[in-house]
Amino acid sequence: xxxxxxxxxxxxxxxxxxxxxxxxxxxxxxxxxxxxxxxxxxxxxxxxxxxxxxxxxxxxxxxxxxxxxxxxxxxxxxxxxxxxxxxxxxxxxxxxxxxxxxxxxxxxxxxxxxxxxxxxxxxxxxxxxxxxxxxxxxxxxxxxxxxxxxxxxxxxxxxxxxxxxxxxxxxxxxxxxxxxxxxxxxxxxxxxxxxxxxxxxxxxxxxxxxxxxxxxxxxxxxxxxxxxxxxxxxxxxxxxxxxxxxxxxxxxxxxxxxxxxxxxxxxxxxxxxxxxxxxxxxxxxxxxxxxxxxxxxxxxxxxxxxxxxxxxxxxxxxxxxxxxxxxxxxxxxxxxxxxxxxxxxxxxxxxxxxxxxxxxxxxxxxxxxxxxxxxxxxxxxxxxxxxxxxxxxxxxxxxxxxxxxxxxxxxxxxxxxxxxxxxxxxxxxxxxxxxxxxxxxxxxxxxxxxxxxxxxxxxxxxxxxxxxxxxxxxxxxxxxxxxxxxxxxxxxxxxxxxxxxxxxxxxxxxxxxxxxxxxxxxxx
Length: 524
What we know:
By secondary structure, the protein is of the alpha/beta class. The chain has helices at residues 20-50, 57-94, 105-122, 139-146, 148-165, 189-204, 232-248, 259-280, 316-325, 329-344, 358-362, 366-377, 390-394, 398-410, 426-431, 441-444, 453-467, 479-487, 504-510, and strands at 130-136, 172-176, 179-185, 207-209, 212-214, 218-223, 253-255, 283-291, 297-308, 312-314, 351-355, 384-388, 413-419, 436-439, 470-473, 492-493. Strands 8, 9, 10, 11, 12, 13, 14, 15 and 16 form a 9-stranded mixed beta sheet that branches. A 5-stranded mixed beta sheet has the order 2-3-1-6-7, with helices on both faces. Strands 4-5 form a two-stranded antiparallel sheet. It starts with 19 loop residues before the first helix and ends in a 14-residue tail after the last helix.
């Protein structure tokens, strides 16, 4: 194995593709030859009868029959050859990926089985060695947003890169839509950790496509099947479970552990139950109050809750990522928006904040769906604040920027959530217009504990003033923190000291009577 050797052009290993129309042409020529042969026989026979079956006629008939037979035999040979080539192509595609021409799941299983049989016959160790699965990020988005050609271009480039790492092309296989597997033999865990990091860095490099350069990213899962593992399918499954664990933990690499099996089964069960809850009304919304410097209730943040009839309360930190990984992110987001739009009609003068995810913003259907929800609930966009994370500002996908521009044009306010925990900079804040910065709770909790905590809050409020945006502190747990925040110019606050998340009915009683309204309809 050579790490990151120069990529060499790979000869096409698939048998020549035989088009169906070529076989049809062979059949047509055979038919024509048969008709011509029959016509010749009839003509020669008639001629022979008219000539009285002279001695010179019979040789002519025989020559015609021999010529027709030779033509038919030649065409038959061509037909057999083309049929064999077509069959070989079909057999090849059973074990190979049609895009990259790498072995597919069935192909790498066959290779591992062959390797195991050879090792047993030679008296060697039949263990499979290590299996490394490389999972690509955002491949489906590229197919959806940029088209088939761009998605295939990414796969071909990644395939070429991986083959440039390993000497033997049969070591690399495509075993899933966005998953490649590599059989690397016996390496130590430390060496595999280094190799996995190198593979991730290789995958992080920009990929050229017909629509421009894209960046995909990756995660790696590694398994070490022991001697008791005799089925290559199980070896690959373990590596894919490790890959899933890495993705779920947002880690670069994970090594298979036996408990992954139990965790995987639990995730499948929770995903199934979450789908049922989304359809059957098992989800609900609560609202956490936000107050100004006078202590007046000026807004609420909408938060989703899931109370399972068998498992009890399941925290959002568990079911939200679970839903996104199960392609339920858009549906969950639209549920939250619809419920917040509906409940907002109970209150007048309160800004309702709702979290939106990068998954929603990348979807071409998100903005039209939001418009339909606004129309359905008869509410104005100006009464709502959409909270985004700092990672959204770094997303290179133009669809994200387009969605944010469209939502702002509709009248929504944009708030930057968890400020200070990610990658925010003055450059990004000036490039993307936001209306509010929310200071993360990790800064608030240190007030009165660390001497630099107050200076950090002051720096953030000064930055907000310079940009002309509002600033709100999350996670306010006591009066001392609230007092220090106000002393540094942060006048908006949210946290358990201000108010715990509560049902919409509790907000009714918390709101001042003079601003309470039974109907928030925009109908004139």
